[in-house]
Amino acid sequence: MTDAQLIRRVIKPGLWILGLAPLLYLLNRARLGDLGFDPIRTITHFTGRTAITILFITLTVTPLRRLTGWNPLIKVRRLIGNFAFFYALIHFLIYAVFDRELSPVGLGEDIAKRPWITVGFTVFLILLTLAITSPKAMVRRLGKRWQTLHRLIYVAAAGAVLHFTWAQKKDIRLPLIYAAVLAVILGSRLFLRPRKPVRGET
Amino acid sequence: MLIRKSPDIKSNEITDERLFWGRREWLASVGAGVAGIALPAIACAQAKEAEKLTPYAAVTGYNNFYEFGTDKEDPAANAGTLRPRPWQVVVEGEVKRPATYAFDDLFKGMKPEERVYRMRCVEAWSMVVPWLGHPLKDVIARLEPTSKAKYIEFTTLLDPKQMPGQRRAILEWPYVEGLRMDEAMNPLAILTVGVYGKPLPNQNGAPLRLTVPWKYGFKGGKSIVKIRFTEAQPMNTWQRSAPNEYGFYANVNPTVDHPRWSQATERRIGELFRRPTLMFNGYTDQVASLYAGMDLRKNF
């Protein structure tokens, strides 16, 4: 099997299953009536944490590629990133529908007045932009600007952790663990320098 | 409605007068009700029209009681280590009968009453709970505070062995809450000993807790071991923890937002969409006069 076949036939289908697994898990819990006493809160928290986790996984592709030297890995990064957006979208929609009843005034007030929601919404807009510009045609059309634009993922990741931390009433242990993990992922880039391309690798 | 007080009246007499008016209003609104059940009858009528009781499982399974962990499910899972009997309550400060009371002596000869109250958490969720408790004013009358007693302070048990959450300094332990004396004397304030006709489960603050239905839930100190009457305003735990976010009064107020979130609406546990939050949690008629002339934006 060539690298391209491995990615197309094994890795990508596997990622689709993994990417949809949190949603299926949530739907199954809903089916069992096991979403706790405040299901909206449960869904909001779960999809938010899932979005951040997948965003982090997206950011591990580059260190992993440098570590293994297996460059074709880059071909699955957009797919993973789009799953992060998918869960951020559910997270935002649940909030917009159930907490603000899609009221433009209510949403606007929240986004303007409450910094942690301002940050969260900004992260959502970044992920939305990155998702829209993720198809191959857009990559081609944007050329070099694509990479510059997609560096916004770093802003999104840091912003998401800030949003998560800010949302806590008092106990910020879990967000701090997320922050530490993000620091490790980003820090690893300093130690894992890009390898010189070897002839034959793409 | 508005009670004017002349400056030459002693403070303890003011309290009495307010109580007097409160009682008159009360009886008038009930008609020829039996005094003992008047309050629950009204509360029930208010709550049952549009508001159903929150199921027992939710009332006892979704709690904020950081002494047993910070997740809502933690108290129900971890409160088994609490030993609510035997229990003692120290009464001290500006009071004529400072003493250590055994739990049963504190309420000797009193029968707990059922009170169906809305419970509005500062986090913007709410419940409707059938508490079982003793009017705080009756207990206070029994303890005989001095005329210097302007506030009453409630302290929760401090024992990391029984309350494993206290091993971490997430808040300053023990948990302390307080009320102004006239708030404490309001007929709505109760010392709660049960819920749904049963003794309080540990996770709800066994064996006794404070319930002040027009204030955010955190004002209701749980597993109380000390009642102190003071001249100075007590420093309550959440105010100490984040003074810009939590004040002493903590009255439910849809027009004064928490710095990080809106207090205009709330999610009733069991419902998917939010409902509007009511001024003083719907108890305006009974408590608004306590705050006449006060800037509630400042005294949040």
- Strand fraction of chain A equals under 5%
The rounded Rg of chain A comes to 18 Å
Total number of distinct structural domains of chain A? 1
In the predicted model, the low-confidence regions of chain B spanning at least 5 consecutive residues are 1-42
Please count the beta strands of chain A (DSSP E, at least 2 residues each): 0
Distance between the termini of chain B: 23 Å
> How many structural domains can be distinguished in the coordinates of chain B?
1
- In round numbers, the mean pLDDT of chain B is 88
What portion of residues of chain B is helical? 10-25%
Uncertain segments of chain A of ≥5 residues (pLDDT<50)?
none
Question: Radius of gyration of chain B over alpha carbons?
Answer: 18 Å
Query: What kind of sheet is the major sheet of chain A?
Result: none
Q: Secondary-structure element order of chain A, as H and E? A: HHHHHHHHH
Total DSSP helices of chain B = 9
CATH hierarchy class name of chain B: Alpha Beta
User: What spatial form of chain A do the alpha-carbon principal axes imply?
Assistant: globular
- Succession of helices and strands of chain B: HHHHEEHEEHEEHEEEEHEEH
| CATH topology annotation of chain B | Sulfite Oxidase, Chain A, domain 2
Summary of the model, kept short:
The complex is a heterodimer of chains A (202) and B (300). Chain A is built from nine helices and no strands.
List the helices and strands and how they pair.
The complex is a heterodimer of chains A (202) and B (300).
Chain A: H1 3-31, H2 39-68, H3 77-99, H4 104-113, H5 115-132, H6 136-142, H7 144-150, H8 152-166, H9 173-191
Chain B: H1 11-30, H2 35-50, H3 56-59, H4 74-78, E1 88-93, E2 99-102, H5 103-106, E3 113-120, E4 125-135, H6 136-143, E5 151-156, E6 176-180, H7 181-184, E7 190-195, E8 198-199, E9 209-211, E10 224-230, H8 237-241, E11 265-268, E12 275-276, H9 284-287
Parallel strand pairs in B: 1-10, 4-11
Antiparallel strand pairs in B: 1-2, 3-4, 4-7, 5-6, 5-10, 7-8, 7-9, 11-12
